[in-house]
UniProtKB/TrEMBL annotation, chains A, B:
Homodimer. Forms a heterotetramer with IscU, interacts with other sulfur acceptors. Signal peptide: none annotated. Pathway: Cofactor biosynthesis; iron-sulfur cluster biosynthesis. It catalyses: (sulfur carrier)-H + L-cysteine = (sulfur carrier)-SH + L-alanine. [2Fe-2S] cluster binds at residue 319. It comes from Methanomicrobium antiquum. This is Cysteine desulfurase IscS. Pfam families: Aminotran_5. InterPro entries: Aminotrans_V_dom, Aminotrans_V_PyrdxlP_BS, Cys_deSase_IscS, Cys_deSase_NifS_bac/arc, Cysteine_dSase, PyrdxlP-dep_Trfase, PyrdxlP-dep_Trfase_major, PyrdxlP-dep_Trfase_small. In Archaea the pyridoxal phosphate cofactor is not covalently bound to Lys but ligated by other amino acids.
TrEMBL record, chain C:
This is Fe-S cluster assembly scaffold protein NifU. PANTHER family: IRON-SULFUR CLUSTER ASSEMBLY ENZYME NIFU HOMOLOG. GO terms for biological process: iron-sulfur cluster assembly. Residues 3-122 form the NIF system FeS cluster assembly NifU N-terminal domain. GO terms for molecular function: iron ion binding; iron-sulfur cluster binding.
Amino acid sequence: MDNAATTPVRPEVLDAMIPFMTHSFGNPSSLYDIAKISREAVAKARSQVAAALGAQPKEIYFTSGGTESDNWAIKGVCFANKNKGKHIITSPIEHHAVSHTCEWLEKQGFEVTYIPVDKYGLVNPDDVSAAIRDDTILITIMFANNEIGTIEPIAEIGKIARERGILFHTDAVQAVGHVPIDVVSMNIDMLSLSGHKFNGPKGTGALYIGKRVKLVPLMHGGDQERKRRAGTENVPGIVGLGLALELSVSEMKETTEHLKELRNRLIDGLLKVPKSHLNGHPQMRLSNNVNVIFEYIEGESILLMLNRKGIAASTGSACNSSSLEPSHVLTACGLPQEIVHGSLRLTIGDMTEEGDVDYLLEVVPEIVQKLRNMSPLTPQELRTT
Amino acid sequence: MDNAATTPVRPEVLDAMIPFMTHSFGNPSSLYDIAKISREAVAKARSQVAAALGAQPKEIYFTSGGTESDNWAIKGVCFANKNKGKHIITSPIEHHAVSHTCEWLEKQGFEVTYIPVDKYGLVNPDDVSAAIRDDTILITIMFANNEIGTIEPIAEIGKIARERGILFHTDAVQAVGHVPIDVVSMNIDMLSLSGHKFNGPKGTGALYIGKRVKLVPLMHGGDQERKRRAGTENVPGIVGLGLALELSVSEMKETTEHLKELRNRLIDGLLKVPKSHLNGHPQMRLSNNVNVIFEYIEGESILLMLNRKGIAASTGSACNSSSLEPSHVLTACGLPQEIVHGSLRLTIGDMTEEGDVDYLLEVVPEIVQKLRNMSPLTPQELRTT
Amino acid sequence: MDYSEKVMDHFENPRNQGKIEDADGIGEEGNPTCGDIMKIYIKVSDNIIEDVKFQTFGCGAAVASSSMATELIKGKTLEEAWELSNKAVVEALEGLPPQKVHCSVLAEDAIHKAINDYRIKQGLSPWEEKEGKEHHH
Ligand SMILES: Cc1ncc(COP(=O)(O)O)c(C=O)c1O
Ligand SMILES: Cc1ncc(COP(=O)(O)O)c(C=O)c1O
Ligand code: FES
Ligand code: FES
């Protein structure tokens, strides 16, 4: 139940990739044909990605993943526009691919404003509007949060950015393939996505770059990707990403309904545990995301016990991070330090079945009770031993 | 015959990758196990790459390809050391992943010295030594050139760099898996490699970073790769790269002997065409590289005709480049503009057979003659019609 | 997290977990960075730790360290228990990941606090921490 971290490649996607790895397309095909077949396959994938976003194929650039897309969009715009201004607007709940990039740019002389979020993790578009300065060159706000699942008011922020003539980037790594997106009506100038979040291959991603955007390359070198992103094209990866995204979008409506049902059952069941709370927005949330806090216990312990029962999950607990700091997302939502450590994130996928939810609702309360019995913080009335 | 451009994935490498794409490792394996299996597989690949270079596993960082490795090494060192100095030393025959990166850094206020090469494309280590300034922070010279196959005196340059206390990076994308390399005895501080140049997967690469190197990330974000290169690890790609490199190195001696034989037959045969010349060094060259010039004709025309006969190749001709400029490598070797356009690069691989060489030696002279008959530059005595 | 089987065993089946209502000494130690808290209860008779229990709010390594540390001091003299180092706990657990070694220090410190709590209650002067002891916060 950790589908937000990564998903396996779908069988039909793998089948489509293999000929481009082995360069064997059946007979008759000369080496010349292989180049042509590859070129056409990349063009097809570009159209598939464009169609999924309401963009033009020539606005899609393939990258090595969500991290590269985020780094490129933000550094690329900043270095290209540093004579126009030095100010960036973002949120405190961005993925580290965005937040660490912004922090590095601060060291290079750029200035960053972090718009606070409410307790659900929502950015208020009015706050974005108020933060715009004469020297603002970029607004970057994520489409949907990877920890708490909250979906941000992207269309509203896009409208403001466009009206004020400021470029707007959104990290949509968790949203693409899961939520309907239209870069035109939402006034998005740049959008990051990552293949392995929708059953495409790892090490693949894309950046949508609208026509009016000026940005410098992150990867200098050869003439690939209209001279904006150098490096030999990862043709099998690109083919896999395109097909996986097309399939996800075509099945989105159905999948979403199914996932929402499972998600809501999970949330309702888990919140029956006393002293538990839902993180993120109750309605404006990804259909695959469940994030709850259990007071008095620590997240890594929950993960370990779940793992022993064959369930993968994730937590915002400090003990489970290499920095030994609790989740910056939960902290930004205003959760007090005492309880932020007990968070559990479960993300479901199309492979998740009702039986999995039942099993989870059986084991989680047992694990929580076991850990609460062990914890010095648990009040007497919640102990069973 | 364009194996320097890209090579297909070997079947055994593909087999090793597939479980990591589909996350199916046979039974019994919990989700917890999958994470562990992946971690161990990445560690194994890191050891395989380290062993191939004479490095320590913790000095190997996985990237998305040779281009990223070059960009990271050069920009990373420059941004990390800009308070120490602004001067970079390189050659005029680097791959664009290096040269365009250096050009961009010039726009950011760095200064670049290009050490001239001789007619074989060789850098003279004494020239490197003479170019070192008080504010030199990086020397970047490629291990082997991708167009003309010349192998540079890397150990000599490494020695100078180490003695003078300057970091030394080498783009070894064409050399790794083909030429013995030892980063310790060669005094290399950073080395770039790319998976698809030795029958590993596209979209994978690595950067060796010696312990004394200080550099900033190119990819900011998560804590992957010892916090130096963010982004979800491309586990199947990493596994494939590691295995492909191990296999290449173990077969290197045998393959090299075989390739040298074919290469020399090819060179000897092609130089029988009148007014033809070998590019690159006759001895210090990659065993897979053949690069010849045919006077009076144009490279793209040769390619097209070869393609029609099922042979892929490459050229330094201006007509075949998107910039409409002739190869910067051949120009740097001092070839006059009139003949630089007639270059043909053939690069062989372990799949190349004697029969392929025979076939080539049959068709190339015919094609050259056909084009010479067509060309207004051809002197009368070389025409057949 | 790459934990040894020994760690996982002590995590899943913690020994001496719970509370001693009429404890002779109680030690509580927390790590302000990761927010974790460990509480050690001891029952002493004739200078011997007759019984020991723990409560822990923390990661797998913290729970396993508590469990192992209590096992190692049960039945020992106070002097022997005082000498138990976090290093011995880590060794008994067949190793901890590097970033988790600090969790075992929590156990050592909590035991020291419990012993000194006992000594103070007995009207004795508390023992002093060794010079140069690894400091972890
Ligand atoms: C919101 C968000 N942004 C960016 C990333 C980075 O993507 P990748 O790890 O594929 O580079 C992730 C996933 O890890 C994510 O969830
Ligand atoms: C010498 C050299 N350096 C760098 C590269 C770039 O590698 P990649 O295209 O895998 O990013 C190449 C290959 O294209 C090369 O031949
Ligand atoms: S107690 Fe927090 S990391 Fe172990
Ligand atoms: S003549 Fe057509 S590009 Fe050279």
